[in-house]
């Protein structure tokens, strides 16, 4: 089998030439032939700008057809794409662009308004994702003039028209070459650029092809952030390789918009993070089940089965009714919710992955997966538990195989810490594996919190900012009912010294919260600061014992 990642994209573009490729939800549609033309024109811009194979190109913007076009143009040219979450603050964006050594930046116009080009001195040009116009250039010749004549250059190269036979993308003949650098965070000191090689992306596509039977023309709703490996791989790239029609929700998708899109588009596969599933469960099911009449009926076995069948039908219709299965990933699913979904026969499964594997590690079909498991190791991957008794004693989850990253960009120390001498990636997650190879995640030793739309929230980063606010000695950021709460142990000595009474600290902390949120992305805003009366319990290494405080915000 040809193990070229780029070839999968090229062949699909050629074979599905006349089919619709991308639509912005309730907006314009482009076909695969449009996609091919746009990619060719962007390649001309890269070529004339002096971009070489292996050069880094950053990409920031909300999910959209043009974001997808830019991503595909970058990787099919042989350049390295550096996707950046649109919620990152300008300083974070400048840092990632500089740290990644990016020469070109594609940006959404609303993000561009807040960026400072003087902070990104190595960037040769900045390109708008709206019309692919040049927003800024730092070049000895006029890139703007060249961009304005790109249609003429295109026509000179293809005087007889542009056909599928003219599509010739970069040949990724070295599977270990870097294709994507995915930053796990934006903040200096915390950001690690995950280097995903072509083999990782190819292997993720091989996995998807084995388990998700998509056909040309099948529809997909893209709701997860495309700057993340999960949404990029399985709501976008795989669909492109199969000739599917992807509908991008271009705004921050609220549950209402998501469900409206599912109902209208009726996607063939649904990807979701637990929070979306849990919200739908609470809103659409729990309220109904609280009705006394329904409670009584659920005690009668025959009626119970009939009611569960109806609930399954209703829940299935909420997701468009046309899906093979709902694949849940990114964080642990509430066990009560999962047990209920299994009980009613809902077509769902829970997978496990991480950015460092591009992302997939374990999965199993909804038909055969075990309750509360995250499936089994996928094709080209091995999973083991660092434990003397992996079936019964919890240990760190270690993974190895084709999907695993090369390492962290310009960070050998972090790479050595993550990947051992035998090639095992230490995930930082805890689990057990049963006799049949099913993985059960038992905890996250990494403290990452999943945001409402799939963004990674690193509490240590937020705590670092909180701890610098007035009268804060130490803090702990936890998640409660989908919101971020900051527990704060005040600096009582400083407060006493300044004549601030203990009762006034609550008000000061509320002011702190307002100030704090001005500097945080929307998805990691603090909903409440709670004053904690005593110092947090620590480990011998002086790390706060986080697990002791998960239920303390109320």
Describe this structure in words.
It is a single chain. The chain has 554 residues and is an alpha/beta fold. A five-stranded mixed β-sheet has the order 4-3-5-6-7, sandwiched between helices. The protein has a four-stranded mixed β-sheet with strand order 2-1-11-10, sandwiched between helices. Helices cover 35% and strands 23% of the residues. Helix 2 crosses helix 3 (65-77), helix 2 crosses helix 7 (150-157) and helix 8 (198-211) crosses helix 9 (229-241). The longest helix has 18 residues, at 32-49.
The largest sheet is:
5 strands, mixed
Fraction of helical residues: 25-40%
Low-confidence stretches: none
Alpha-carbon distance between the two ends: 56 Å
Shape: globular
Taken together, the total number of domains comes to 3
According to CATH, the homologous superfamily of the largest domain is ANL, N-terminal domain
Strand order, sheet with most strands: 4-3-5-6-7
State Rg. Answer: 25 Å
Number of helices: 18
Just give the CATH class of the largest domain.
Alpha Beta
């Amino acid at each position: 089998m040809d193990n070229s990642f780029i070839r999968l994209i090229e062949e699909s573009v050629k074979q599905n030439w006349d089919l619709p490729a991308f639509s912005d939800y309730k907006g314009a549609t482009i076909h695969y032939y449009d996609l091919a033309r746009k990619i060719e024109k962007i390649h001309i811009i890269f070529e004339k700008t002096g971009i070489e194979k292996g050069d880094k190109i950053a990409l920031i913007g909300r999910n959209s057809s043009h974001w997808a076009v830019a991503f595909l143009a970058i990787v099919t040219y042989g350049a390295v794409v550096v996707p950046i979450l649109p919620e990152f603050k300008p300083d974070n964006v400048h840092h990632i662009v500089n740290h990644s050594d990016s020469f070109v930046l594609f940006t959404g116009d609303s993000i561009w308004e807040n960026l400072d080009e003087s902070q990104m001195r190595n960037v040769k040009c900045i390109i708008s994702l709206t019309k692919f116009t040049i927003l800024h250039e730092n070049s000895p010749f006029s890139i703007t003039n060249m961009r304005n004549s790109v249609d003429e250059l295109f026509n000179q190269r293809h005087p007889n028209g542009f056909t599928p036979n003219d599509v010739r993308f970069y040949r990724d003949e070295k599977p270990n070459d870097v294709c994507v650098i995915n930053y796990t965070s934006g903040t200096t000191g915390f950001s690690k650029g995950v280097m995903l090689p072509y083999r990782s992306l190819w292997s993720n596509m091989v996995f998807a092809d084995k388990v998700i039977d998509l056909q040309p023309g099948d529809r997909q709703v893209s709701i997860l952030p495309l700057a993340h490996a999960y949404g990029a791989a399985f709501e976008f790239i795989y669909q492109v390789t199969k000739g599917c029609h992807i509908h991008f929700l271009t705004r921050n998708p609220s549950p209402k918009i998501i469900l409206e899109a599912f109902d209208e588009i009726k996607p063939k596969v649904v990807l979701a993070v637990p929070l979306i599933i849990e919200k739908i469960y609470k809103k659409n099911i729990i309220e109904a089940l609280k009705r006394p009449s329904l409670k009584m009926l659920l005690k009668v076995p025959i009626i119970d089965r009939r009611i569960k069948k109806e609930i399954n039908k209703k829940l299935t219709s909420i997701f468009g009714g046309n899906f093979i299965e709902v694949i849940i990933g990114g964080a642990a699913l509430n066990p009560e919710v999962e047990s209920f979904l299994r009980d009613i026969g809902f077509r769902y499964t829970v997978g496990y992955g991480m950015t460092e594997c591009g992302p997939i590690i374990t999965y199993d079909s909804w038909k055969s997966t075990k309750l509360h498991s995250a499936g089994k190791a996928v094709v080209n991957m091995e999973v083991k538990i660092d434990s003397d008794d992996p079936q019964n004693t919890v240990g760190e989850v270690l993974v190895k195989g084709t999907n695993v990253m090369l390492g962290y960009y310009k960070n050998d120390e972090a790479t050595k810490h993550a990947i051992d001498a035998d090639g095992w990636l230490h995930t930082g997650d805890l689990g057990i594996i049963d006799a049949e190879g099913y993985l059960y995640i038992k905890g996250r030793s990494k403290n990452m919190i999943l945001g409402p739309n799939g963004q990674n929230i690193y509490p240590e980063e937020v705590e670092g900012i909180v701890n610098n606010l007035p009268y804060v000695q130490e803090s702990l950021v936890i998640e409660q009912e989908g919101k971020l709460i900051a527990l704060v142990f005040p600096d009582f000595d400083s407060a006493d010294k300044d004549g601030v009474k203990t009762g006034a600290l609550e008000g000061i902390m509320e002011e702190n919260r307002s100030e704090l949120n001005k500097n945080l992305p929307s998805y990691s805003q603090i909903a409440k600061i709670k004053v904690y009366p005593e110092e947090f319990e620590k480990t011998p290494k002086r790390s706060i014992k986080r697990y002791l405080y998960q239920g303390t915000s109320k």
